[in-house]
Amino acid sequence: MLERLDQPPADKILALMQEFRADPRPDKIDLGVGVYRTPEGVTPVMRAIRAAERQLWEAETTKTYTGVAGEPAFHAAMADLILGPDRPTDRLAAAATPGGTGAVRQCLDLIRLAAPEATVWLSAPTWPTHQTILRYLGMPMAEYRYFDDESRGVDFEAMLADLDRVRPGDAVVLHGCCHNPTGANLTLPQWGEVAALLEARQALPLVDLAYQGFGDGLDADAAGVRLLAARLPELLIAASCSKNFGVYRERAGITLALCAEPAAARVIQGRLGWLNRQTYSFPPDHGARLVTMVLEDPALRADWQAELEEVRRNMLALRTQLAETLRDLAHSDRFAFVAQHRGMFSRLGASPEQVARMRADHGIYMVGDSRVNIAGLNRATVPILAEAIVKAGV
């Protein structure tokens, strides 16, 4: 039986990671995988997480199962972080998941249970795993225009025109902040227009929030999803703790479902627990517990927020340095968008051939669509990247 299976399509980012590791050049630069690195090239354990881990090691008395939907304290702490203290708790359902990817999967499974005929709309471009999960689940999907290749910003008029074709009962995936792969974000007034359109079309928004705190700050990065929660009767959120808490390998994420009525929230809470049981039974708890400890302890939370702000400002400084270096080398402002984008990623506008040339000639590894991980740079490597971009004719 098993011999009938073919190799799955290669994951481009994982393949790029393998190619980078096999490259013997000591000065190679990895701008592909989406992890934060210090100027020394290390993805650190955040100070507050390390302190919480010491406390947990001393205090933990059991490794027995957690609840099938995870711990209510984690649900409450994350809902407060994302939606703020004024969230409608009686209309919320929640479930801990293995990372943000697990949360996306559970949201899509929930949509499929509720409306198998629903089309799921994705931004063009989007994180490729959105598409692969939908294909695996056999769910209908469509694209709405999002990124303008000329301006390197959001093509908002085209986005609204496409979303105006959404049918009642369809779902629309929105990036909460720090759009992956482009780095181009909606403004708050634009979020308001999107909310009005989705309400008029009776569509369900699914917000993928993987980078809260990496863009303009914790509250600013959640402003769009909070606006949706205030204006719409229903909302799904898939959130990750991997980036902003640095717990990548602990796989801590959460699904939040805002429902029209408290009675519906109770039903969805049961469904989220049921979905967890069908896929991985009980969710992992270690990372979620560390996150909860940090968010509930004022001292740990203050230290975490201070370090997260250092991370955010470091990425903004690298963006500014790259944009200014490119302006000086190219004698043009055509790369000014790099400083305007937010989060880990920007899409440079290089062709696959130019990307391959930079990899071959300079040992610079980025995804074929020219998505670069800004957090993979440091002050010394920014000029190397800038020179490679100009030499490749981007």
Give me the CATH superfamily of the largest domain.
Answer: Type I PLP-dependent aspartate aminotransferase-like (Major domain)
Distance between the termini: 49 Å
Q: What's the CATH C level of the largest domain?
A: Alpha Beta
Query: Could you give the count of β-strands?
Result: 13
Elements, N to C (H/E): HEHHEHEHEEEHEHEHHEEHHHHEHEEH
Widest β-sheet, arrangement of strands: 2-10-9-8-7-3-4
In round numbers, the mean pLDDT is 95
DSSP helix fraction = 40-55%
Q: Within the CATH hierarchy, at the fold level, what is the topology of the largest domain? A: Aspartate Aminotransferase, domain 2
Radius of gyration: 21 Å
Segments where pLDDT lies below 50 for 5+ residues? none
Number of helices: 15
Report the major sheet.
7 strands, mixed
CATH architecture assignment name of the largest domain: 3-Layer(aba) Sandwich
Strand fraction equals 5-15%
How does the overall form come out from the CA principal axes?
Answer: globular
Count structural domains.
2
Describe the structure.
With 394 residues, this protein is of the alpha/beta class. It has two domains: 11-45 and 305-391, Aspartate Aminotransferase, domain 1; 65-296, Type I PLP-dependent aspartate aminotransferase-like (Major domain) (Aspartate Aminotransferase, domain 2, 3-Layer(aba) Sandwich), CATH 3.40.640.10. 47% of the residues lie in helices and 14% in strands. The chain contains 15 helices and 13 strands. Strand 5 (147-148) and strand 6 form a beta hairpin. The longest helix is centred in the last third of the chain and has 33 residues, at 298-330.
